[in-house]
Amino acid sequence: MKSPILEFAVIADDLTGSLDTGLQFRKKGLVTFVPLRKSSRPNGQVLVLNTDSRNLPGEFAYRRVYKACQSLKARAIYKKIDSTMRGNIGWEVLAILEAQKIPKAIIVPTIPVLGRTVERGILRIHGVPLLRTSYANDPFHPLSSSKIIDLLQKETGLPAGHIPLQQVRQDPARLAERIEKSQERILAIDAVLQSDLHAIASAWKLASGRVLACGSVGLADEIVSSLPDGPKGKAKVFHGPLLIISASRNPLTAEQIKMAQEYFRLPWLEPDLDRLLNPRWAEAESAAISKRLGKILTRSPGAIMTTTFQKHIAGKERAIPKALGTVAARLLKKRRLGGLVLTGGDLAMGVCRRLGASALSIQEEVLPGIPCSRLTDGPFKGLRLVTKAGGFGEKDALWRIIHYLRGKHESQET
User: Fold this and answer.
1) How far apart are CA 320 and CA 354, in angstroms?
2) Which long-range contacts (CB under 8 A, 24 or more apart) does 367-370 make?
3) How far apart are CA 51 and CA 63, in angstroms?
4) Same structural domain for residues 162 and 193?
5) Are residues 251 and 205 in the same domain?
């Protein structure tokens, strides 16, 4: 029996990006899954594939994405990219174009609500050019320019085109024609306002099937905006304490953790990474941390486990999330939790891989770009997870997430 053709397929390079973009489709009532195993293909209307390729060398990322997309069948494909241009964007876009035989791609990282805008080809974060922000110092892919076409051309070795804002704000049909007639195969498009994203989405629909849309949650939201609203599910609520885990080194994450800790007075635990990552001591240290957390959560409604404030350990970027995931799985075997909050894409993937589920089902929106999902199966089936990219949200995002998981609305007082 053949699998039904998907309404949409989304290709992302990390787990938090998979979930925040898949959320835009779920908000329209579309059943949306994110597999956690390569062999898992749950039946839904939208499948979000996390290729887990952001921090791979470019050639490896290309091959992984090409393989994932080669036999993919969907009415439309959306390539989720990081709104600060981190990762192997050029390589991965080319892989999709060639695997699916799509002529053109448009690159639109803009998210106005989060201050990410593009004008004259320059990506700015709250008005600051990308190269002057902390995002430029990514340990895997340090950025060399604030201009999107410069980044794409350096990565792929191919010419990239640029469509300025004044052309975006003309008739969508003219914009679609401009995209299709461009000599360059990859085009970066200016967008400052949500209305600009709406115009780009309208142009993409006129050329649908011949142009690959590549963007973050902002463009995805506009692409699905014309779909009728459907029934929206609610994640199953489990009562119990919350565990917040963060391995993101983004300065915004640090502010969010401090604010949440001060407001809720949650106990704060920083693992001894020298022991936790040492093969000789890892097992005993993981058990000890889990036991400590268990004791904390018998007398507290939540706890924070974080490496955000610790010194960066080069070469251990993947080992740390896996180790923290092992701690979380140990804890969950002993104690039922009301939910997990995971900050950082690698961290989220490291934890989810230890929880024994084959997929995540996206349920609903906590804050813009921040979804609540649940495990579809496994020993912790139904467990709620809120996932947040390190740079997402305002300073109060984490305490608002805690309010949500406790079943409280923003209008209510604690």
Assistant:
1) 13
2) 367/393, 367/397, 367/400, 367/401, 368/113, 368/114, 368/217, 369/20, 369/23, 369/111, 369/113, 369/114, 369/217, 369/393, 370/20, 370/23, 370/397, 370/401
3) 10
4) yes
5) no
How far, in Å, are 82, 251, 258, 396 from residue 254 at the CA level?
A: 20, 5, 6, 11
| CATH code: domain of residue 57 | 3.40.50.10840
Taking residues 332-356, what's their average pLDDT? 91
Give domain status of residue 2, yes or no: no
Q: pTM of the entire structure? A: 0.88
Task: Give residue 138's pLDDT.
Answer: 82
Q: Please state at what angle helix 15-26 crosses helix 345-352, rounded to 10 degrees.
A: 90
Q: What are phi and psi of 125, to 5 degrees?
A: -115, 110
Helix count and strand count (H, E) for the chain: 14, 18
**pLDDT-derived band of residue 412, with 50, 70 and 90 as boundaries?**
very low
Tokens of 321: 């999330």
- CA-closest candidate to residue 92, choices 108, 104, 110, 79: 79
Q: Which residues contact 328 (CB under 8 A, 6 or more apart)?
A: 243, 245, 340, 351, 354, 355
Per the structure, how many domains does the chain have? 2
Work out the percent of the chain whose per-residue pLDDT is above 90: 76
- Model pLDDT for residues 259-300, shown as the tens digit of each residue: 998 888 999 999 999 999 999 999 999 999 999 999 999 999
CB distance 266 to 300 below 8 Å: yes
Distance CA(54)–CA(227), nearest Å, equals: 30
Residues 11 and 80: beta-carbon distance below 8 Å: yes
Task: Please tell me whether residues 273 and 214 are part of one structural domain.
Answer: no
Name residue, tokens 């969950």. 332
Return the structure tokens found at 17: 């990006």
Domain end among 223, 256, 273: 223
Which residue range(s) make up the domain with 270?
Answer: 242-405
Last residue of a domain, one of 164, 190, 223: 223
Q: Domain containing 259 — which CATH number?
A: 3.40.980.20
DSSP letter for each residue of 90-153? HHHHHHHHHHHT--EEEEE--BGGGTEEEETTEEEETTEEGGGSGGGG-SSS----SBHHHHHH
* Residue 394 confidence class, pLDDT cut points 50, 70, 90: confident
